[in-house]
Amino acid sequence: MGIMGLALAWEARIPAVAQQERRVEPFRGQIAAPDAAQAGRAEDTALAAACRSGDLCAYERLYSLHGARMKNLARNILGSATDAEDAVQETFLKVQRGIASFRGQSSFVTWTFRILVNTCYDARRSRLRKKEVAADDEQQRGDAAPRPEARSRGRRRRA
Question: Does residue 98 form part of some domain?
């Protein structure tokens, strides 16, 4: 099996017209203005401060802003919508319990999403352990149960 390809003489060059056809189109979308980024950081800081003070409306705001994205990410990691909802709920409980440890080195939303990803990984690990334990239990039960051919050998035939 050989390699098939285009064989060109060393002297042959690709024409400039072919090179020009492969140009990349420039980005035509809107680039976020520095003011929008500043406003996002300010909102993030205000949300973190409100959550630190125990304001439940701040948690509701966090959920309304990012809940759908959080569920999508969790569903992609876990593969199940119900597991994703459980992971998001567990994440909000962890955020509420651990808000005092938020240092502000990253944005509050980034910190929350990191907690979500770790929660999803923990759930996957737990699910795998449960499957392994269930498989081990089945194997032990299977080893303990007498086999049909062993039962028939032990019985005497009556005539």
Answer: yes
